[in-house]
Amino acid sequence: MTQVVFVLNGPNLNLLGMREPEIYGDDTLDDIAGMLEDRALDLGLEIDMRQSNHEGHLVDWLHEAQGSGARAVLLNAGAYTHTSVALYDAIKAIRTPVIEVHLSNPHKREEFRHKSFVGMAALGTVAGFGASSYLLALEAVARL
Ligand code: DQA
Questions:
Q1: Rounded to whole angstroms, how far apart are CA atoms 137 and 127?
Q2: In the predicted model, what is the mean pLDDT of residues 132-142?
């Protein structure tokens, strides 16, 4: 059976493509989903791509990833990355590997982005490569 990789996206990422393109690029979330699906096919994986502006949805989906036996989670929690103890706890609470993903490199940006609750609990982080951050994170999953 094909293993599923959850790709969870947090607040404001539904606006990708028109949101600060000089920082986040021109690709929409649908474009990124398409790229991931193509690459996943080569790797023998399946993508389940989701986005929500609500913190609790991301927590529920992390639990669901474990419950459904997903291979891994790629998590771009957007601004919740820097604020959410609930996401930290959820990642710690599940055995499913979680990889933190960012389009931009938060460490090169405002100081409030330097702290990552997600990164403190995740297996690893891919950041700063635009849409390719997601693809690199998927490659990492295939090598786990
Ligand atoms: C982001 C970085 C976060 O600091 C920011 O709040 C986002 C996007 C990224 O992908 O670069 O919403 O997660």
A1: 9
A2: 98
Q: Do residues 52 and 12 make contact, with C-beta atoms less than 8 angstroms apart?
A: no
Q: What's the gap in Å between 77 CA and the centre of ligand 1?
A: 7
Q: What is the distance in A from the centroid of ligand 1 to the CA of 121?
A: 17
- The pick from 15, 18, 104 for probing ligand 1's pocket by mutation, whose C-beta has the most ligand atoms within 8 angstroms, reads 104
| Structural domains in the chain (count) | 1
- Of the candidates 83, 80, 61, 78, the one whose C-alpha atom is nearest the C-alpha of residue 9 is 78
Task: Find the 101 Cα to ligand 1 centroid distance in Å.
Answer: 9
* CA separation for the pair 14, 105 (Å, rounded): 19
> Domain of 39: which CATH number?
3.40.50.9100
What would the pLDDT profile of 75-86 be if each residue is shown by its tens digit? 999 999 999 999
Full-prediction pTM beyond 0.90? yes
